[in-house]
Amino acid sequence: MMKSDDIEKVKQLLASPKKIAIMPHRNPDGDAMGSTLGLYHFLQLLGHEPVVIVPNDFPDFLAWLPSSETVKVFERDVEVGTRLLNDAELIFTLDFNVLSRTGDSMEAALKALTVPFIMIDHHQKPDDYAVVTFSDTSYGSTCEMVYQFIQGLGQGQLINKTIATCLYTGIVTDSGSFRYPSTTGTTHRIAAEFIDLGIDNSAIHSLLFDNHSHNRIQILARALQNMKVLSAYKTSYSSLSQEELNNFGHSKGDTEGIVNYGLSMKDIVFTAFFTENKDEGIIKISFRSKGDFDVNAYAREHFSGGGHINAAGGKSTLPLEATIQKFIATLATTKID
Ligand code: 5GP
Ligand code: MN
Asked: Residue limits of the DDH domain (predicted)?
């Protein structure tokens, strides 16, 4: 829950109509897009002039979200993006904990601003850049926090089907369709309320998960073929090289969710998925775990990353094979149970 003095501060900041920029982390996922667009629709209803600015493109499988066509992509036109940020009188940063998660160019533009920031986020170790930091790792999604944020302001009656559709999306994607341990009775009660508001929950699941291209299925098949098991460490891993991705004509979002297959095997509690990105000169890594093994701590320690206990990410500037060898080498000194 939000602290009462934070609620008062937010109420004051929202007391008169404002130009408001709302942004998620780079490579935005379902929770990032759902939470920013949910908040966008809410702020519009309050009479503000909001705009969602994403650091880089969001995947096609989220392009049906209400008003996603109004979203501005900062790195597509840094000049326009910077102007939008400079025009903003208030900034909301959603679903991330440090400004560097917006990428180098957007981070620089954000750091130059002097207007107040409000953070809504569920990652560990939030940075101290906001006048209101609503940060709580016990929430399964930022979307659930936006719901609580709206309720905290006493504006729950404004939550309509459009807002609910956006927020339901992030609740579903970040909870692995209500299966991760962060899923609570409250999570289900909020989902129930959204269904009563008329969201088409079944259609949303289909749009999110039954919407793959043939290419994406072939990419999944290759990743499954590449899967290795290190049973002594209860660990599995897989990878896709840039060449493999190119051969299957990949597009953004095609690798989303593939990491979870590594955990779907019996007796495996830790999995990693490596994606080579030649454009950015990095290997992007996703980590997942079952139970108490903390992949957030692991990703921080070894791969300049972070996230949550059971889902985290990181990166490496070593070549793909060397990154995988480094990963294997860390296992000998990592307590996995
Ligand atoms: P994914 O593996 O789906 O990209 O990310 C899983 C979780 O870890 C998400 O909550 C995401 O925000 C976080 N995460 C992914 N990559 C990074 C990273 O490079 N740094 C940090 N701090 N968190 C990350
Ligand atoms: Mn999230």
From this structure: 19-171
